[in-house]
Amino acid sequence: MTRKKKPPPHPKRIQVTDSDGWTHIRRSHSKTTSNKHACCSSSSSKKLHPSSVPTGQTLLDLRNTHAHYRSQWLSSPCHLALQDLLRNDLPLFSSSRFIDRCIILGLGSLSNGRRSSWWELVFFETLLETIFHHPSHDHRETPDRKLGETAIYAQDPVFNDLDRGFLEDLGYTVVSDPAAFDLTTASTLLFAPHLEVEVYAKALGKAKPRLCVGTVMEECLERVNSTSKNNHEREMENEIFSEYLSATVSTRLPDFDRDPWTQFTCLYWNQSG
């Protein structure tokens, strides 16, 4: 009986942290073992639909909930740690002149009360505020872009009419799946934490965004293979993650004591853009 040759293992990625705290990815060819990681899951075949609006809930209710979570977030140690990180490193890499659009994916339905959705939203808001309000430290001719001049897109198939109305009230453009994937460019800030791995790869597949907040990509590369996924699809996804890792440096988000969503989440900066 003829045995099929096993495909060569993916090169092992070695993380090297520089003196500024940013992680660079280096490759070696030593064999590595795969472990199961709950943070990188494959999608189910079930099609997602808009969630139902809870009876009696109004736009005012969402505004009040938003104000509550934003107040809690702004006083949290995680927010203060993130501000220190961004203020120290932003002059080095992400002046707002390099970002012409922002995309937030997979936020979930805000009207259905998922705590992580609200924490992610207020994190995203303050991330943008810090980047676009941070003064330049050079004298280039291209001026910094203002937050109000930058398009912000939100996409999630589960958004209902109330979610859409609330996000549009914040100034976001809500697009239907899969429109946001075609909007990603090398000048995009992509906010995509804890997406299913196929969606995450698709979000990074068209272009390498300038900044990305998302699941630790090494975890996606080492995930256990799904029986429903053929090898070609997985290889394509792995190639997308590998190429983005090779072009970026990263840092883990600070721990958040009120919700675990920052776990296994990194801020990636594309140096090649």
Beta-strand fraction estimate? 15-25%
Q: Tell me the total number of β-strands.
A: 9
The biggest beta sheet is recorded as: 9 strands, mixed
**3D shape:** globular
Q: In what order do the strands lie side by side in the largest sheet?
A: 1-2-8-9-7-6-3-4-5
Residues in helices, as a percent range: 25-40%
Overall average residue pLDDT: 79
Rg, alpha carbons? 19 Å
**What structural category characterises the helix and strand content?**
alpha/beta
Compile the SSE list and pairings.
Layout: E1 12-17, E2 23-28, H1 59-74, H2 77-93, E3 101-105, H3 115-133, E4 151-155, H4 161-169, E5 173-174, E6 188-192, H5 197-205, E7 211-215, H6 217-221, H7 231-247, E8 248-252, E9 265-270
Parallel strand pairs: 3-4, 3-6, 4-5, 6-7
Antiparallel strand pairs: 1-2, 2-8, 7-9, 8-9
Helix pairs in contact: 1-3, 2-3, 5-7
